[in-house]
């Protein structure tokens, strides 16, 4: 039974009590008539008075019972209020649990984002490392190209030196004819790429002699 049904029942009880009181009032009126009828009979009046007193005691018991019913209803209302508060508390606990789950999901997502960021940093580090390797490789290639060009220059100057030396030793270009002497220069060795050289000075492989 809900609280409205209980209150409706209380109202019915109160109406019943009111009817009883009206009946009691009628009884009292009847008693008054009896008392007027049997004024000479004191013992009968005392018995009637005792009966009336019992009726009043019964009425008082009814009122006491009604008060107990009202107290019981108040207890039921208080119990319902406690149940409602408990339901609200349970709802708050469920909501707090959902908030905690959402917070945990946020922490997991943040952890995944951090892991992804770390993976990106590691990848960037590897890319930088590979780029550095590429730069070093390019520098080595450039260095080897420079060494190759220096060796080509040495070979070219050595070839010129050999050609001039051959020309100077031909009979048609004797000392008496030209009056010019070329001192033969031994071919210089190729540039050693493993050696630690300083500034590269150009060498042309020819040395002019005297007139």
How much beta, percentage-wise?
under 5%
- By secondary-structure content and strand pairing, the structural class works out as mainly alpha
Mean pLDDT: 69
Reading the helices and strands in chain order gives: HHH
Distance between the termini: 141 Å
Largest sheet: number of strands, sense, barrel closure? none
> What integer value in Å does the Rg equal?
65 Å
Total helices: the number is: 3
Record field, number of beta strands: 0
CA-based shape: rod-shaped
Helix fraction? over 70%
Spans where pLDDT lies below 50 across 5 or more residues: 171-187, 190-211
Explain how this protein is built:
The protein has a domain at 3-90. It has 211 residues and is mainly α. The model is unreliable at 171-187 and 190-211 (pLDDT under 50). α1 packs antiparallel against α2 (42-168). It is rod-shaped. It has helices spanning 3-37, 42-168, 175-178. It has three helices and no strands. The protein starts with a helix and ends in a 33-residue tail after the last helix. Helix content is 79%, strand content 0%.
């Amino acid at each position: 039974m809900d609280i409205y049904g209980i209150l409706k029942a209380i109202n019915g009880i109160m109406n019943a009590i009111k009817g009883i009181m009206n009946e009691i009032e009628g009884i009292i009126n009847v008693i008054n008539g009896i008392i007027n009828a049997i004024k000479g009979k004191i013992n009968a009046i005392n018995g009637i008075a005792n009966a009336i007193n019992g009726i009043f005691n019964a009425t008082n018991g009814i009122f006491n019972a009604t008060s107990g019913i009202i107290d019981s209803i108040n207890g039921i209302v208080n119990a319902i209020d406690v149940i409602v508060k408990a339901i609200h508390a349970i709802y708050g606990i469920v909501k707090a649990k959902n908030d905690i789950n959402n917070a945990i999901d946020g922490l997991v997502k943040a952890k995944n984002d951090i892991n992804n960021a770390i993976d990106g940093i590691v990848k960037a580090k590897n890319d930088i490392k590979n780029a550095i390797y590429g730069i070093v490789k390019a520098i080595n290639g450039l260095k080897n190209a420079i060494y190759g060009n220096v060796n080509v220059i040495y070979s070219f100057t050595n070839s010129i030196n050999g050609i001039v030396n051959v020309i100077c030793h031909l009979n048609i270009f004797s000392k008496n004819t030209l009056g010019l002497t070329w001192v033969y220069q031994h071919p210089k060795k190729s540039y050693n790429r493993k050696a630690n050289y300083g500034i590269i000075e150009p060498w042309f492989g020819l040395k002019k002699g005297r007139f």
